[in-house]
Amino acid sequence: MSVLRLSDFRVLSFDCYGTLIDWESGILAALAPLAAKCTPAPAPEALLALYGRLESAQEAETPQLIYRELLSRVHARMAAELGVAASAAEDAAFGASIGAWPAFADSPHVLAELKRHFKLVILSNVDRESFRGSNARLGVAFDAILTAQDIGSYKPDPRNFAALIARVAGMGHAKGELLHVAQSLYHDHVPAQQAGLKTVWIDRRDGRGGGATPEAQGAARYDARFASLAALAEAHRRETASAVSKGTRRA
């Protein structure tokens, strides 16, 4: 794997849920009423794996549904598989929980730092209304926001990355100036690499399995890996400091 220079890029695009927003904590909190109906209560990792399998299946089956409505159906399917009853109101409450999912502790301040050096873009499997709640938690003004609701399909559909590349081109930047930053090998890295983008893996689970993310279909490649967004920012600071130091010595 070649060394990736972050300063070679002008635009950073981000997956949101799993990368910037701690969706697994949010999912488990929102699933607590459903889990409480089960005897015995399912293990958190089992719940996350079930969610990941049913969410990706629902996205493939109903790409026209906006995300909060899609998650209502996922909740109903989870209840059926767990053998417990869930009301329509409980299904809807789960779908409405997205904006309450917490941000990772490093996300707001790292995004604010990166904003000083790059244009920032969101490419997310979410709807516009739900993302507004998450955006408030992240506290940064993104230069562009692309949701599944805008595009009409869910990642890993290649149309989402074609839309991203086209939007960035409209901002005056070539594909080679765009770096995609994401946690999900399945949703992001495989299709982004197939689209010809460089990618950075934010491995939030750091070897603890897939969690709510399905296993990648096909070879999963990426150009750099960090265990957190803070580690990516630190790499950029070191790179910038090194460039300044070399410039000072040449002077």
Radius of gyration: 19 Å
Rounded average pLDDT: 94
Biggest sheet strand order reads 3-2-1-4-5-6
Tally the helices: what do you get?
A: 10
Low-confidence stretches: none
How would you describe the shape? globular
Strand-pairing-aware structural class = alpha/beta
The helix fraction, in percent, is 40-55%
The H-and-E topology, N to C, reads as EHHHHHEHEHHEHEEH
Oligomer: single chain
User: What is the percentage of strand-forming residues?
Assistant: 5-15%
Termini Cα gap: 33 Å
Count of DSSP E strands?
6
Major beta-sheet overview = 6 strands, parallel
Your description of this structure?
By secondary structure, this protein is an alpha/beta fold. The chain has helices spanning about 25-35, 45-60, 65-80, 90-95, 105-115, 130-140, 150, 160-170, 185-195, 230-250; strands at about 10-15, 120-125, 145, 180, 200, 225. The protein has ten helices and six strands; from the N terminus they run E-H-H-H-H-H-E-H-E-H-H-E-H-E-E-H. Helix 2 crosses helix 3 (about 65-80) and helix 3 (about 65-80) packs across helix 4 (about 90-95). The mean pLDDT is about 95.
